[in-house]
């Protein structure tokens, strides 16, 4: 909570106030056993990231879920900076949707932040019967005290981009946010900006296609998305569709600039390694333009003759100066200076594993960016399997945390050794003055050493909120 504020709600008054918040000491992240050989429930791990602590870089608590094969994925809060004006609200519950089982777990992180406990479980039938929705993905708290969760499918596994509303006190399913019959053909992530009366949502793919791993034929069959859906925030109507074309296939994480007055943002499109900027036009509608393209690499010894970068996670620093994203196939994280919003400038890059490492099975035949294949990374004696994927930036923008799991079925397909050895969490030191990224060689959380065996660790959250969970009004 901002120290200069008395009687205010959770979070911070502005993004720049958040940058002055305390340094992160613990992080929460879901750990997944689905699609591994270990028949154990997924769990929420609490990791100590305080360098002054005797348990630094260790998992200090594990909260197992009551069911098997949920595929915990992303998480959100019951209250955040969008509730800052409401002194009765507390950020004390973490919302954990399960991508595959369609359960939603509500975790009490307020009673003992170091040892979260299960508060409530919302069964899949609640989503199926009350909303005709399934496969929940992103959870955002709303200024009115409710929680909104985007979905990817209907109960039969077809694509369906709708939104489930939860009551912020009881966590009961209230119903759909979108109007009847107005769900998008597919869903994934979303972000809202009330000052412009807008919400944007993206499209991954139909859950029944995702469940079996990635098949390029499914893209041709129309089972993956390529649109940004634009919603009227007040009426809940879908008012526009921005078709990004083949170049924008599989648009995943969508981020408005943090400044609540800004009418633009960026979306990372996985399949062809592109980033699009979306913006409000002088007419008042919305448009999108491609501003970054990571070239494919011509390769030998891989499933296809060309390897895309596969942009997966993307985030923006709280001062709206830097954009970060991970290339899950090529194996690098990039930092772009976005001071000139239409012309992002590459300011930092670091390779951490990936599919084109010099001692791996893939030979790069033609590369428009690199002169040689990057070497494998070994941190504290551990060879990094898989590739950088989920990102989280410290409030002050100086530390970038990264984990290596994308989604268990794709992990198994593209990085089988990652599933065998477990994922890792790494830390990148960020130069916030000139730009630049450097791996911190003294930081490693090895999820291959977990008590029940190697596990896949996914999205990171700080107890006080962060640049991907908080929205300012």
TrEMBL record:
It catalyses: methanethiol + O2 + H2O = hydrogen sulfide + formaldehyde + H2O2 + H(+). One of its GO terms (biological process) is protein transport. One of its GO terms (molecular function) is methanethiol oxidase activity. Pathway: Organosulfur degradation. Its EC number is 1.8.3.4. It is a peripheral membrane protein. GO terms for cellular component: cytosol; membrane; nucleus. It is found in: Nucleus; Cytoplasm, Cytosol; Membrane. Keywords: Acetylation, Cytoplasm, Membrane, Nucleus, Oxidoreductase, Protein transport, Selenium, Transport. Catalyzes the oxidation of methanethiol, an organosulfur compound known to be produced in substantial amounts by gut bacteria. Selenium-binding protein which may be involved in the sensing of reactive xenobiotics in the cytoplasm. May be involved in intra-Golgi protein transport. Belongs to the selenium-binding protein family. This is Methanethiol oxidase. The lineage of its organism: Eukaryota, Metazoa, Chordata, Craniata, Vertebrata. The gene is selenbp1.
């Amino acid at each position: 909570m901002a120290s200069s504020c008395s009687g205010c709600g959770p979070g911070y008054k502005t993004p720049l106030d958040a940058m002055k918040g305390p340094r992160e000491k613990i992080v929460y992240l879901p750990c997944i056993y689905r699609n591994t050989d270990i028949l154990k429930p997924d769990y929420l791990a609490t990791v100590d990231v305080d360098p002054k602590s005797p348990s630094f870089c260790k998992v200090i608590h594990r909260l197992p879920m009551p069911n098997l094969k949920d595929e915990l994925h992303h998480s959100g809060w019951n209250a955040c900076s969008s509730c800052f004006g409401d002194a009765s609200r507390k950020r004390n519950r973490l919302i954990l949707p399960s991508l595959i089982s369609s359960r939603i777990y509500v975790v009490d992180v307020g009673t003992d932040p170091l040892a979260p406990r299960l508060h409530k479980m919302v069964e899949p039938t609640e989503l199926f019967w009350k909303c005709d929705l399934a496969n929940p993905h992103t959870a955002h708290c709303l200024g009115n005290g409710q929680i909104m969760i985007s979905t990817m499918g209907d109960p039969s596994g077809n694509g369906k981009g709708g939104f489930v509303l939860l009551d912020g006190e009881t966590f009961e399913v209230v119903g759909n946010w979108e109007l009847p019959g107005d769900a998008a053909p597919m869903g994934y992530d979303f972000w809202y900006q009330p000052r412009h009366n807008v919400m944007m949502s993206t499209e991954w793919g139909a859950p029944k296609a995702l469940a079996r791993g990635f098949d390029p034929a499914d893209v041709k069959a129309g089972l993956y998305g390529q649109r940004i859906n634009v919603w009227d925030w007040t009426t809940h109507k879908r008012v526009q569709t921005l078709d990004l074309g083949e170049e924008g296939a599989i648009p995943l994480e969508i981020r408005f600039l943090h400044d609540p007055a800004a009418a633009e943002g960026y979306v990372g499109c996985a399949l062809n390694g592109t980033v699009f900027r979306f913006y409000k036009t002088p007419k008042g509608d919305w448009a999108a333009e491609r501003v970054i393209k990571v070239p494919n690499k011509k390769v030998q010894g891989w499933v296809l003759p060309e390897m895309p970068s596969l942009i997966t996670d993307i985030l923006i620093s709280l001062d709206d100066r830097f954009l970060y994203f991970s290339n899950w196939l090529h194996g690098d994280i990039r930092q772009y200076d976005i001071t000139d919003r239409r012309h992002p400038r590459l300011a930092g890059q670091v390779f951490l594993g990936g599919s084109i490492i010099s001692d791996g099975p893939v030979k790069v035949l033609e590369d428009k960016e690199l002169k040689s294949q990057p070497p494998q990374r070994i941190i504290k004696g551990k060879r990094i399997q898989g590739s950088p994927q989920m990102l989280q930036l410290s409030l002050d923008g100086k530390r970038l945390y990264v984990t290596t799991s994308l989604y268990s079925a794709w992990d198994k397909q593209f990085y089988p050794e990652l599933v065998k050895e477990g994922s890792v969490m790494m830390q990148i030191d960020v130069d916030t003055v000139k730009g630049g990224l450097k791996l911190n060689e003294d930081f490693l959380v090895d999820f291959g050493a977990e008590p029940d065996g190697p596990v896949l660790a996914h999205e990171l959250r700080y107890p006080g909120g962060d640049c991907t969970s908080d929205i300012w009004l």
